[in-house]
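sry for the spam today, last one i promise. struct tokens for design, 245 residues
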């Protein structure tokens, strides 16, 4: 196998390994860009791959055709000459080999399984500014929130959509998804707690971080294990304007 052909096959496999089995069909131009940027594939070959992907050649590669039969199919479907079709046939038959197909089948949802086997730990830092009219109060809260994933985690709407697009998501990527969701939720609750009453300055230390973390957990398929935190404020700071004496 020529070195350039091997680079193309390896590059396509890396793209699938990272982005999921449907990525070649969903994002053919991004595949083209990745091949050029990451694998030193020449633009002519990458362009041929792009043309093949647009014509959905990859969906035909899972059949039991041999290389010659597949080449004829490509010639007919893509209006390519025999040399170009032979090249594509070799690439896609090698890419969608039985070994690779079995590897991808085994890899599907592995990241989710790994994520569900461990505790989910999120460190959150909440900041809010309370405007007192002639001055402001900077409020803060820091907490370490530990939750346990339940089987309902996979049904969370955001993660469910991500897994449909890429069942190869790693546990780290899943953690980042839930970290953002939890932090955004806690930020909003802390902001409201600090600013909802115009006449009463809240005691930041009394922010019910465990209650809000538990509420988020119930909505997203987690059970709260522990939540340790501390809050406070920077004191009242008057607003100074030019011309005041």
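last one done:
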């Amino acid at each position: 196998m020529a070195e350039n052909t091997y680079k193309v096959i390896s590059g396509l496999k890396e793209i699938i390994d990272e982005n999921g089995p449907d990525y070649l069909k969903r994002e053919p131009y991004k595949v083209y860009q990745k091949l050029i940027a990451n694998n030193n594939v020449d633009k002519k070959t990458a362009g041929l791959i792009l043309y093949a992907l647009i014509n959905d050649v990859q969906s035909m590669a899972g059949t039991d055709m041999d290389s010659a039969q597949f080449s004829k199919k490509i010639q007919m479907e893509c209006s390519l000459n025999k040399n170009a079709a032979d090249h594509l046939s070799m690439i896609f038959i090698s890419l969608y080999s039985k070994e690779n197909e079995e590897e991808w089948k085994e890899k599907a949802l592995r990241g989710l399984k790994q994520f569900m086997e461990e505790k989910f730990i999120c460190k959150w830092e909440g900041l809010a500014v309370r405007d007192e009219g002639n001055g402001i109060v900077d409020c803060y809260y820091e907490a370490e929130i530990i939750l346990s994933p339940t089987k309902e985690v996979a049904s969370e709407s955001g993660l469910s959509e991500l897994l449909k697009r890429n069942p190869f998501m790693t546990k780290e990527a899943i953690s980042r998804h839930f970290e953002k969701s939890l932090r955004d939720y806690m930020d909003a609750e802390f902001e409201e707690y600090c600013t909802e009453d115009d006449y009463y300055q809240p005691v930041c230390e009394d922010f019910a971080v465990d209650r809000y973390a538990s509420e988020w957990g119930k909505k997203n398929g987690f059970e709260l294990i522990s939540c340790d935190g501390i809050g406070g404020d920077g004191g009242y700071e008057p607003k100074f304007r030019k011309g005041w004496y």
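The chain has a mean pLDDT of 90. ok im logging off now
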